[in-house]
Amino acid sequence: MVKHVILWKLRDGLDDAEKSAIKAGIKEGLEGLVGKVPGLLEVFVRTEFLPSSNADVMLDCTLESAEALKGYAVHPAHVEVANAKVRPFTQVRLCMDYEA
Prior knowledge:
Elements: E1 2-10, H1 16-31, E2 40-46, E3 57-63, H2 66-74, H3 76-86, E4 90-99
Helix pairs in contact: 1-3
């Protein structure tokens, strides 16, 4: 098993309503990839956080293997979500992948 964890910071200048809509879109889009991307076992997107946090969205994925992670990165369904719902609205991305 491989864990794929991403933290994003949303772009500056977004109001609370925009942030809420963007977070909902990211959550719906990424969690909807289970069953569409081979080897993607679980996806959890966290958008609610404590005031001590300095990220706005967290992605926590479980994949079958490092090869499945490579496939996920380029899978058309994932790329579509990333290009439409994530990349246009984020300014910082941190990633950690590890064997679980």
